[in-house]
């Protein structure tokens, strides 16, 4: 197979999590002093609240390495991924050059600097008590999305959460465990793979749904998941909407024509789903007075960064740092890639989909900080 054919074959697997051939799994425990300086200090929370733990569900954007411990091709535990994390020579399975949103949000809530994957066999009780990520790169609201690449679906992530609750009950008792569960912050970040891969690139769902009915299906799955999460005791739940999918480098390459413009179809699909997700969140909040579900709009924030990069300290918006930046992701962004940009902090994207640590940090500030009061 020619190099060009191989690249074309991999393009449908690029978005946001379907990217990898195997590499051995490594997770290193970093001391706080080794964490990148872009992990900002904790915010001052309303009413002088303290958060016991951060618990995260989702896809590759917030997977710190759970996929290292399952049998799937969706992994990124090899260099240059993680080159700016800790000592820079032991990638953890985070889809970026450094920290990912789960880490940055944990730091902003004053919980800890790195949020570990739940499947890490080396976790101790004290690690569990301050939170973990259950996210699995390649998952979606649509159960088929995870099934296609053998990763952990949202139903499986909820099963792990149930197991988590059992473990902390055994460790600290029913009463304290209940307090941790009810007072923790929960983050949900998922759905991009449904639109970009399962529907748009693979076309698997197109025979069953037009885009309006498919986003209805996604929204109903989101509602079911959030309702079940609430039923397990979660109350403070931040839910990220879909980003501006059509403007990431891989989708520009696949759908953007010779000029690599943004893909209108995927942007419009994201907007359509986001409106339905927002309505579902409103419904749950109205029907459950003690629920604090917070809609987190990363679509608008990322679009603003792409349209006005200099305002946020960026220079490059249409390609990633790794290689040409047009299609490299996962195995095509590897230790033998011919070129890695010399200043990844000037790039919004690290590879052809995933943002850089600096971009994630900027997004966390733009999206999360104005909404902090809504969690309390």
From TrEMBL:
Transmembrane segments: none
GO CC terms: extracellular region
Domain of life, per lineage: Eukaryota
InterPro entries, alphabetized: GDSL, GDSL_lipolytic_enzyme, SGNH_hydro_sf, SGNH_plant_lipase-like
The name this protein goes by in its record: GDSL esterase/lipase EXL3
MF (Gene Ontology): hydrolase activity, acting on ester bonds
Listed Pfam families: Lipase_GDSL (PF00657)
SUPFAM superfamilies: SGNH hydrolase
PANTHER family assigned to the protein according to its UniProt record, in alphabetical order: GDSL ESTERASE/LIPASE EXL3, GDSL-LIKE LIPASE_ACYLHYDROLASE
Record family assignment: Belongs to the 'GDSL' lipolytic enzyme family.
């Amino acid at each position: 197979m020619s190099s060009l054919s191989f690249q074309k074959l991999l393009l449908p697997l690029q978005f946001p999590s379907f990217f990898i051939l195997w590499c051995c799994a490594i997770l290193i425990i970093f001391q706080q002093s080794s964490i990148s300086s872009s992990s900002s200090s904790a915010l001052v929370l309303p009413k002088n609240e303290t958060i016991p733990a951060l618990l995260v569900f989702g896809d590759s954007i917030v997977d710190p390495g759970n996929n290292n411990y399952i049998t799937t091709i969706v992994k990124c535990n090899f260099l240059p991924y993680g080159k700016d994390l800790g000592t820079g020579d032991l990638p953890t399975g985070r889809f970026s050059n450094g920290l990912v949103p789960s880490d940055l949000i944990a730091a902003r809530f004053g919980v800890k600097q790195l949020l570990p994957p739940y499947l890490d066999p080396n976790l101790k009780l004290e690690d569990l008590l301050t939170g973990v990520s259950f996210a699995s790169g390649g998952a979606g609201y649509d159960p088929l999305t995870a099934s296609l690449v053998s990763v952990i679906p949202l139903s499986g992530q909820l099963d792990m959460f149930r197991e988590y609750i059992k473990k902390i009950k055994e460790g600290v008792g029913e009463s304290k465990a209940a307090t941790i569960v009810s007072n923790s912050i929960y983050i949900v970040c998922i759905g991009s793979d449904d639109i970009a891969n399962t529907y748009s690139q693979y076309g698997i769902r197109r025979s069953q749904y037009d885009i309006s009915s498919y986003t209805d299906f996604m929204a109903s799955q989101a509602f079911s998941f959030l309702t079940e999460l609430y039923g397990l005791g979660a109350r403070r739940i931040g839910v990220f909407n879909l980003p501006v999918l059509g403007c990431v480098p891989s989708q520009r390459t696949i759908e953007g024509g010779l000029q690599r413009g943004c893909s209108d179809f995927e942007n419009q699909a994201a907007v359509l789903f986001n409106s339905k997700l927002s309505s579902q969140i409103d419904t749950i909040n109205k029907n459950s007075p003690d629920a604090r579900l917070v809609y987190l709009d990363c679509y608008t924030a990322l679009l603003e960064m792409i349209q006005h990069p200099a305002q946020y300290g960026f220079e490059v918006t249409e390609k990633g740092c790794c290689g040409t930046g047009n299609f490299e992701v996962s195995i095509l962004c590897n230790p033998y890639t011919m070129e890695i940009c010399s200043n990844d902090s000037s790039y919004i994207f690290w590879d052809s989909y995933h943002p850089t640590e600096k971009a994630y940090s900027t997004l966390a500030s733009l999206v999360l900080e104005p909404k902090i009061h809504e969690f309390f």
